[in-house]
Every structure is written in C-alpha cells, then in structure tokens.
Amino acid sequence: MSATPKEAPTTPRRLLARLRRLMARATDLAPRLDGLVRLVAAEFVAEVCSVYVMRPGEILELVATEGLRPEAVHRTRLRVGEGIVGTAAAEARPLNLPDAQNHPAFAYRPETGEEPFASMLAVPVLRGAEVLGVIAVQNRAPRRYAEDEVEALETVGMLLAEMLHGARSASAEVALSLPGSMARHFEGVGLTPGIVMGPVLRHGRRAAPRAVLAEDPEAELRRLTAATEAMQRAVDALLEGPARAAGQEPREVLEAYRLIAADQGWLGRIAAVVRDGLTAEAAVERVLAELRARMRQVADPYLRERLADIEDLAGRLIDHLGGTAPEPAQGEGFILIARRVGPAELLDYHARGLAGLVLEEGSPTAHATIIARALAVPLLAGCRGATDSAVPGEHAVLDADEGRLVLRPDAEIVAGYTAALAARAARRATEAGYRDVEPRTRDGVRLTVMINAGLLMDLPQLAETGADGIGLFRTEIAWLARGGLPELETEEALYRDVLAAAGDKPVIFRTIDLGGDKLLPGFSHAEEENPALGWRSLRIGLDRPAMLRRQLRAMLAAAAGRRLLVMFPMVTTVEELRAAKSLLEAERRAAERRGAAPAEVRAGAMLEVPALVWQLPALLEEAAFLSIGSNDLTQFLFAADRGNPRLAGRYDFLSAPVLDLLEQVGAAAAAAGVPVGLCGEAAARPLEALAVFGVGIDQVSVPAAAVPAVKAMVRSLDLAAFRTFLANLRRSARGGASLRADIAAYARDHGIATE
Ligand code: PEP
Ligand code: MG
Known about the structure:
The protein has 755 residues and is α/β, with parallel strands linked by helices.
C-alpha cells in the first residue's frame, strides 16, 4: 500500500505533534511501530517506511513496514554492514541515495517487493552511540532527500530508540542486543604503558535522553539556559583548577575551549531544535549527531579539533541537564572508555581519579595522548567497539603493556592480574630506591640515563628519577598541546622553566619535529601520500627559516649565560645540518649583540635517516653530538610504518641490521670524540637498553617511567662480559633473524635485571 499524500510535506513541529499523539494512543510496541511507519510514510510523502531492529549477533530484522510486503516482516534480515540498511548501521550515519539499487552496498531481498523503489534514506536508530536499529524511507521516483528531511528522520530515530529501549524487557520479539554479562576482550595499541583494574566510566556515552518530546518548549528552553550557564561556570572553574596545576599548555587549550563554550553558533542551534518541540537533552543529541556527520567529512585537523571541542562541551551540557551516567566517587581509580576525548576533559577526569584510558580512535600524537603521557595514565588506543560494550560501573582490566582490554573479566583473569600487579608494585618499591643510585655497571662503567620530555608536567620527573638530564626535549609537543604556534615570549618562558628545572643537568632541546603524524591544527600540511617520508621536521624548518629562527631565538634567549644544546631532527644530508647550524649561528650572533647570548651553544643532529650512516665522516665534523632516534630510524631501516600495529613485532630491534648499524655509528663517533646517545623508545625496555650499551653506545634517553628499570639493569650488569657475549652472538648470527631469545637467556643466566 502506498501513502497518498493529502497535505504539504512534513515540518518538524507537526511531525513531533503527531508522534506525540501516536505515543499517547498506543502503548504496546507492535501497534506503536505500525502506527509510526504509517505516520512517517505519510509525513515524508514516501511510498515506504520500514523499521529494522538489531538482534543478537549483529543482525538487523525488519519488524514493521508501510509499503513493503507484509510477509517480509520478521523474515528479512541483514547483517550489519550488509545492504544499505546494514551500512547505515555499521557506519552509524544516514545514507541518502537517489539511486539505491545501483549503490555498491545494495542487497536485493526478493521477499520485500522493493524493486520499484529507486531512492532510499536510511537512518540509524541510535541510543547514545549504540545502534539499536535502522529506519528507512523509500520512494519510487529517484530523489535526494532534503537536509531537513534527513534531520526529521533522525529525530524519529531518537524517538524510536526510546521506544525500543523501553520495550526491551516487555517484548521478547524485539529483544535487543545489549551489552551482555560475558567477558569481552579487545585488542589495541598501548600508547602509554601500564596495567590497571577498576570500574569503567564511559565518556561521551551519557545516558540517552529520558524523553525526546517536550511537553512545554518554553520551560525546556529555560532548563537549557540554566544548564548552559552552569556548564560555562564549570568550564571556568576547570580553568582555575586542574589546568592551572597542570601547566601552561593545557591552560591555553582550555582558554580556546572557554570561547567555544560561549559560542552562540552551536548553542543557538540547540535552542532552535528545542523550540521545534524536542527536550533539551534530545536537542543536544540531535545537534551532536549533525556535528559527528560533519566531522566525518572534515579532513582539516584544525576544524576537527574545534568540532571535537564542541562534542566535548555538548557532552558536558547533557551532564548539566541531569542526564549524567553514574560516576565513580572522587578518588576512585576508574578506567575511562571513549571514542575520543579532548585534552581539557582528560585533565578534568584526572582530577576525579582517572586511572586508565581506552580510546576507540587515538594516535601517538593526539592531544589526549600527549596529556595522558604527561599524566602517566596507561592508554590503550584503537579499541573499536569498546564504548558500546562497556557498562558504566562494571569492572575492567586495562593492560596497555600487552595491548589488551578485558571488560567484565572473569575471576581467573582478575586473579592473574592481581598477582601481576602485586609483583609489579614490589618491583616499583625496589626501583624507587634507584633515584639516588648512579647507573654504574658491576664492572664500574658509568653509563648515562636521561629522560625524554615535552611538557612542563614532565619536569618533576627529572628529580624524581634521578636521571642524568633531559636527552630529548620534544618542543613540538607544547605546540601541539596548544593547537598552534606559540608567542615568542611564551616559548621562551617554557624553555626557561625547563632549564631552571634541570639545574646543572644537561637539556637537549630538539627543534620542532612537525609533519608525519604530528600535524599542527591551522598549519598548512598538504595531503601527502607518505607523510612519514614527506615534508616534515627539519625539512619544514629549512623551508620556513623564519619559523625555525624564531624558535632558535627563544631557545637562545632562555639559555642566556648558560650552555645551550640544540638538536636538529630528521637530518638527511650533512648540508641540511650545515644550513640549520648557520641559522642558529646567525641568531646566536644577534643574541650576542643584544648582550644575552648563552655562554656556549652546541648543535647536534638526530640520526634517524639511514642515509646519514654513509656520511658519517662529514657528519661527525659538523655535529657536536649525535642522538639516534630509534623510532624513526627503525621504521626507515625496515621500511615499516612505526604507527602500524599490524607490523608491530615483525622486525626486531634486537637483530643484526639494527645492532650492526648502532655499533658502526658508536665506533665512528667515539673515534671522532663526538658523544652519541639513543633517544627513541627502544631503550625504554631494559633488554633493548642492554643491547644498546652492549654495542658501544653508552648513553640513552628514555621516558621517565623507564628510568628505574634501566638503572636496575645497569647495576646488575657486567658490561665487558656482556660485550664479549654479544659480539660472539652477532658473529654467529645470519641474516636479519631476531637475537632476542639468546640475549634474554644470557640476561637470565647472569642475573641481569631485564624483566
Ligand atoms: C625517534 O624517532 O626515535 C625520536 C626520538 O623522535 P620522535 O619519536 O619524536 O619522532
Ligand atoms: Mg623521530
């Protein structure tokens, strides 16, 4: 049966009024669904309206239709990802198709009799971010549905979500696939190490609105205004609270956040939707859905960050409207599970007892990662589907070391992890004793162990670990955390603070290392096929000399009267190092003229590009020191993307190609009297650090958390004996096979602390 339109197409207000009447008339789910599809078909002047509901096993079942054959109801089933309906569910976004049957995802179901219908609009039924089903309209004539029609169907989808959720227990027929009580395992990439157990909190997964349709729009608008003001006051308080303690960079991110919290663009849009007849919570969800749709289309990192800020703020607004999910008490260590989370939010969660973080998205250089690392919060990224499966308040195990999340772990898993955590705590207690202990081997060799840092928050760790200095200060992290280029004075103040915190210990400032996977919002990074091999790092600095010189000026000014160590990243040819050094020298002379130059300036190079190995003689004449960036060096050496989890473990740092290269660099540098260290993450693992020392590199710079373990390893090591063993092992090794097992066995047999 096709709908016979007798009136003008729908308006949101009329549609909502009719839906409200329908809900009042029918109380059982089946008649409500039948009424709903009829009403929507008529309002949309569509020949078909159908509702599909998610069954256990990710199957979408047709449960009500106007316009398709009635016998297809409960027979037509599609997997998530199958057909247009399954695709809308899989991607959690509307599909608006004038020619649906020729769409690559179209799946023909003869029992439905849908051959005559050309156009289709399929909208997921979402409760929070969980997909409960799909509602679709179809028309004979090919047409693209107007934007306000898409929005109207999304609003119907919200109401439907409320109906389906409410009917869950009442009707076995439309039982929904809700998170079960079984343990669920997820694999991810550990971006900050650590293991935690605790209750789960879902970010951005606030309780779905209790009601979608408002009885009194004016009263609803007043609620919205009150909640908006409360949210704005809370953001102000955040700016005064945790962010102040956390340092300058997060505070600046929050300042931008405060401006967006007062922005009338998105707030006005929510008010407009409330005036149409939705509750305030539902209106925020509505606008959030639009926002997420926009985010999917926006590639520009600056815009994406701004949209992500609005998403965070909208979530806060829902909290203030009273729809907040149960939250753990202050101080209780909880595991936050989120699709993504903003840096400001993360600071806020930290103040409330954040113990671990799981992200569905996330990358090594995302703002949240930078903050999580600074806060030493274990972070697991890439756990797709975790948000939907997590139930707030239930327990989880987060093992960022092994890249694993277990929701609702069974008793055995909990017991295993409890024992492992106890052992680790005992080890930590021992390691704490290493703060005042020098990294000296049993045979008396004084090695150097420094820390990698990037934020003010990292600095106290220098004293806490008793490390020998900052072997790598990643200056771009402050730029990334701030979301833009800093003022010269701000940057100078940061470097001054770093030097002050380091006292008489050395600090190696690395000039900005942007590009690759570290994209600065607002800075024009052209699309590149291979960004890791592209316009990044020193290449940008040399092409934008004014920018690089400004940074060097800030460093020189901060180090007036002291020693300044500057390191250039991604040096590929000695000529590039010379060019960078001449910019540094020009700025140094200018500083001298101002009477504020450092007492000494030394310029070093990072060795990350293999081509430099064949320029060592010339390089060692130019560089005052070398620092091997093992993260990039190994990615280029093995041609294996450092951020691709599929390649993790495929090539081993502990194999001849790497160890031979390190030895060659170490020997050449020693002969030239040029200090050389290794500052990539590799040396954070004691076994790898052992091998680095074993091939003749006697300085490493590692994340602060790794310092005690590396020191413990050094203290238990007879370096001369190990070097003999390693040299023999490498002589007998063939090809690029891993030497890990042999090195680990030696360490075990000789009591070297590498576990
Ligand atoms: C490296 O590549 O090893 C390095 C230390 O630099 P980053 O990790 O910042 O690229
Ligand atoms: Mg690098």
